[in-house]
Amino acid sequence: MPRVLFLLPTASYRAGAFLEAAQRLHLEVTVASESAVGIQDRASTDFLPMTFRDIDQAVRSAAHFAATHPIDAVLGVEDQTTVVAAAIAAKLGLPHNSIASAAAARNKYLMRELLRGQGVPVPRHHVFSIQDDAAACAGSVSFPCVVKPLVLSASCGVIRANNAEEFVAAFARVAALLTRLGLTETDTAARQILAEDFVPGREVAVEGLLTAGALRVLALFDKPDPLDGPFFEETIYTTPSRLPAVIQQDITACAARAAPALGLREGPVHGELRVNDTGVWLIEMAARSIGGRCSRTLRFAADLSLEEVILRHALRMEIPSLDLAAGAAGVMMLPIPYAGILSEVRGQDEARAVPGIEELTITAQAGDELVPLPEGTRYLGFLIARAESPGTVEAALREAHRRLAVVIRATPTRGPLAPTCPSGSRVVTF
Predict the structure, then answer these.
(1) For residue 124, is it left (φ>0), alpha (ψ between -120 and 50) or beta?
(2) What confidence score (pLDDT) does residue 315 get?
(3) Which of 5, 61, 123, 404 could form a disulfide with 196 if both were Cys (CB 3.0 to 4.6 A apart)?
């Protein structure tokens, strides 16, 4: 029976989906993580302690384990594990991306430099140290620009600046975030900040699978909400895309050029692109599949989940079909509207009753501290919908979201994470 090694951060939303897919395929499963919390109750799952920040030690641990428990595939499920997964797979002689390409896909500056060098359209950009004088740095950029960390994802720390004053404020805010998360102590890339030209236009996401460098696009998602700043909170994704076929072809072509430009050759990729009158611009390409619980929107014609497709591909098992099931689907990543302590989310039954809504999951728990973007690193939860058309899916997601009300209690003021609601509790009705 094949064995798969999952590299799972303890806070991953995605552990359940991959473990369920492995169970459907009757695989032996080993989970490498810094903590066994969340997998201890899975009798069929082995646990391998691993510190992802020490790549050499992680490779030694995996190789030692594989000497008595042969591993057939290694999957880094989140951004922070993709480089480690590449290093382990290389050591074990398994199909893999190079360590350099996985590292470039994690570092927004390296990514843009490689893409620009291969003629892939990317925003004009500059990189600065968090120790630099922000006012002096502002003289090097054009406005409007976007200020962002090199290493975070899900729009965390991404801020638009329209002038020098806003740039200085955004720079300080991103630097404070990286320091608060403790990343500057262990990651040299976390000691730098990227500033790039703001690219106007429609934003889309590409979900793909690489085999020996060739990209197969599995899904193209529209993002119907405008993402113009000052923060870039992603909410709704719908598929199939409603863009004209010729534009979809241009998007696919840009993504297909980006992957080899980064050196990526194997496994899932998730791209973020913008489309405007000047063409298609590559904003991000990650060496992983779509994040959060968004993968549940994708249902393949052979009744496979995205995670099962990825596992079959990694193990070189037959994939009956990569065609998506008929109809349209979408996800809404429920935003956190205010900082504070979550009391409850009302209206859940009413939201689930909206025609087309397939699933509502509130991932935040009562008592959790909620932090909105740009400092936040999580969502309130996820809505999944299916219908005959993307427009109907979008309407269902918006109506279900409107029926929810979030009760939040304020927390004491503490710098840039000060609550945006007044003292006491607040009921937020969307």
Answers:
(1) beta
(2) 96
(3) 123
| Alpha-carbon dihedral sign for residues 379, 275, 147, 126 | positive
Reported as type and span, the H/E element at residue 366 is none
| Lowest model confidence (mean pLDDT) among 142-151, 247-256, 413-422 | 413-422
* Distance from C-alpha of 351 to C-alpha of 68, rounded to nearest angstrom: 50
- Which DSSP symbol is given to 180? H
Sign of CA dihedral 234, 235, 238, 243: negative
- Angle, vertex CA 362, rays to CA 356 and CA 367, nearest 5: 160
CB 132 within 8 A of CB 299: no
CA angle 159, 161, 166 (to 5 degrees): 105
Structure tokens at 84: 């480690």
For 407, counting Cβ atoms within 10 Å of its Cβ (0-12 exposed, 13-18 middle, 19+ buried), the class is middle
* Segments in 126-163 forming alpha helices (H): 134-138
Per-residue CA distances from 408 to 109, 191, 395 (Å): 37, 33, 26
Q: At 18, is the secondary structure helix, strand, or coil?
A: helix
Cβ neighbours around 49 below 10 Å, total:
10
What distances in angstroms separate CA 197 from CA 126, 174, 355, 368, one per listed residue? 9, 17, 41, 36
In the prediction, which pLDDT does 145 show?
A: 98
Grade residue 15 by pLDDT with cuts at 50, 70 and 90: confident
Question: What does the alpha-carbon distance between residue 381 and residue 237 come to, in Å, rounded to a whole number?
Answer: 14
More confident site: 181 or 418: 181
Q: Give the pLDDT confidence score for residue 415 in this predicted structure.
A: 43
